[in-house]
Structures are given as C-alpha cells and as structure tokens.
Amino acid sequence: MTEASRAPLAGVMPLPADLRAFHQLYRPAYVRWAELYLGERPGAEDVVDLAFEQLADDWGEALRLDSPAGYAWTILRSRTLEAARARGRRPVVMDTAAFETAALRDAVDPVGELEESLSIYQAIRELPERQHDVIVLLYCLGYGVRETADVLGISVPGVRSTARYARRRLKEALGLDREGGSGDLTDLAD
Question: Which of 8, 75, 93, 170 is 20 to 30 A distant from 55 in Cα terms?
C-alpha cells in the first residue's frame, strides 16, 4: 500500500484546514485502536480511512457538536467493530494483549500468568463501552490520561473518573475486591 493510499483524505478533495488538522492529529491513534481489534494494519488503515470519509461528509454537523472528537470516536468505534464482525472475528485485543504482556514473558509460572491475563482481558471485554475504551487506551495502548481524553473527546476528569469506576468493576469481576489492594489496574496484572 502506498503512502497516498494510506491517507486518502490528504489528496482526494479539497478539505477544510480544520479537518485536515484533525485527520493528522487523530489518525495515528485511530489506526492503533483499529489494528488492536482487527489484528492487522492494512485492514485497520482501511477502516480508519472509511471512518474519516464519513466524518468528512458530516464535518459541518460534527463542528456544531460539543465534542467533534467524541463524534469521530463513535464513527471509528462503530466502523472497527463492524469490520471485525464482517470478518467473523472477535476483537483481537484480548487475545493479543494477553500474550504480549511482559509479566507473561518473565513469569515464574507462565501458565498461571496466562490464565490470569485471560481473566483480566475477559473482564475488560465485559465493561460498559466508555469504561472499556478508557481502559484499552490507557493500559493496553499506553496512552496518557490527557491523550485518552483528547482521543475520546471527553474531559481529563472524565477519563480519571471512568478509569476509577472501570478498575473497581474489574476488581469485583476478578474477585480482588475481597483481597484488598491499592485499586490500581496494575494490581490486576501482578
């Protein structure tokens, strides 16, 4: 795939400067997200490009909203999940993340670590949509709180609050709420 085909918005039609800037700012994060779910970069780039084409069609409407980034995220999320379903795939994020975890590579008991990792990722999969997205961006993709807020089109306090509730749900789902701990998601992987 050529560089031009990876970013079709850049040369297909004259676009408003604000949409070009938005595309340049958010496309890398969107591709990482889609790749995590689809398991391959070319398909992820195609999905992201389709999402941006839809966003270009709706750009005037998006700008009238409180959060154009939130609107764009909704389009991306929907396109990504549709693509995964169309390919007969469940989200790869849970499979990939479990095997890529550093704890698994360095574990004294790799099988035990794998079982624990799979339990964590199954619990993440069952989170409500917003909590799921925040946890995946923060902990699976390694974005900071500010970056996560920007990508999702929500406030920094909103990301912190959502992450706090998600971690609480994950601890309950994994039975860690009875064992104590600091409440940080890193406790879940230890």
Answer: 93
> Could you give the CA distance from residue 113 to residue 43 in angstroms, rounded to a whole number?
31
Candidates 160, 162, 153, 145; CA nearest to 65 is: 153
First to last CA, the chain: 40
Q: H helices of the chain, where?
A: 3-6, 17-38, 41-57, 59-64, 68-86, 93-100, 102-106, 110-125, 129-135, 145-152, 156-173, 186-189
Residues 113 and 156: their CA atoms lie apart, in Å, by 32
pLDDT tens digits for range 112-144 = 655 666 778 788 889 999 999 999 999 889 999
Q: What's the rounded Cα separation, in Å, for the pair 123 and 23? A: 32
